[in-house]
Design goal:
- With 228 residues, this protein is α/β, with parallel strands linked by helices.
- It has one domain: TIM Barrel (Alpha-Beta Barrel), CATH 3.20.20.
- The chain has an eight-stranded parallel beta barrel, surrounded by seven helices.
- The chain starts with a helix and ends in an 8-residue tail after the last helix.
- The mean pLDDT is 96.
- The chain binds N-acetylmannosamine-6-phosphate.
- N-acetylmannosamine-6-phosphate binds next to β8 and α9.
- The site of N-acetylmannosamine-6-phosphate has 16 residues, from β8 and α9.
- Its EC number is 5.1.3.9.
- One of its GO terms (biological process) is N-acetylneuraminate catabolic process.
- Pathway: Amino-sugar metabolism; N-acetylneuraminate degradation; D-fructose 6-phosphate from N-acetylneuraminate: step 3/5; Amino-sugar metabolism; N-acetylneuraminate degradation; D-fructose 6-phosphate from N-acetylneuraminate: step 2/5.
Length: 228
């Protein structure tokens, strides 16, 4: 087991991804959120974009999962679709690179993404929507499997996290990450009981716009809103 995974095992990873274009969408603010998360006991960070990653790497040696979100015209795949992006993230200091591991039309095969990450000496994290996604990625040499994409392939977004997928992914024999809609400590504990090696929390810690809307919408009787 790599020392990065040993550091993360049993702990919390905080995703510090500002709402895109929002008032907190600045690298120095992302870095401040990252330091605050580490002060609170996070073992690792999940950071989007090369500029944010560089700003975070400048202030901490903590394990970082890097990703790039890019909207493509001809593919629904949005999280690190290209190997060159994975390499840029690793160059900027990512220990782990997360990518969309769903079985959808994509610009580059998953196999070449994972190969590029492994060749560069980093770890690959498959953002999965199903156990099949995880099995395929594990077969191709991926070290971490996350439940990140569950609920985001169309249709209404569920309210709570996908704890069943965490249990299923944990049986693939790779480092299992529970991610997606964890908003209460008890849910994170349940994910751990279901076999998660680490839990990622994003919006509930680092997107004040979302947290505010949960309360504001509850008071005015509207449904919970969210942004990916
Ligand atoms: C589906 C997708 O694009 N998820 C993204 C992946 O990096 C982020 O927008 C999420 O914030 C992250 O997964 C953490 O989840 P939550 O914010 O629910 O704790």
């Amino acid at each position: 087991m790599s020392s990065i995974l040993e550091q993360l095992r049993g702990g919390l990873i905080v995703s510090c991804q500002p709402v895109i274009g929002g008032p907190l969408d600045r690298p120095e603010i992302t870095a401040a959120f990252a330091l605050a998360a580490l002060d609170g006991g996070a073992r690792g960070l999940r950071i989007e974009g090369v500029e944010n990653l560089k700003a975070v790497r400048a202030v901490t040696k903590a394990p970082v999962i890097g990703l790039i979100k890019q909207d493509l015209a001809d593919s629904p795949v949005r999280i690190t679709p290209f190997a060159r992006q994975a390499n840029a993230l690793i160059e900027a200091g990512a220990d782990i690179v997360a990518f969309d591991a769903t079985d959808r039309v994509r610009p580059e095969p998953i196999s070449s993404l994972i190969a590029a990450i492994n060749t560069a000496g980093a770890l690959a994290m498959a953002d999965c929507s199903s156990v099949e996604d995880g099995e395929r990625a594990a077969e191709l040499g991926c070290e971490l499997l996350g439940s990140t994409m569950s609920g985001y392939l169309g249709g209404p977004i569920p309210d709570g996290p996908d704890l069943e997928l965490v249990a299923a992914l944990s049986r693939c024999g790779r480092f299992t990450v529970a991610e997606g809609r964890y908003q209460r400590p008890a849910e994170a504990v349940q994910a751990q009981k279901n076999g998660a090696d680490a839990v990622v929390v994003g919006s509930a810690i680092s997107r004040p716009e979302h947290i505010t809307s949960w309360f504001a919408d509850a008071l005015t009787g509207h449904a919970k809103t969210g942004e990916r």
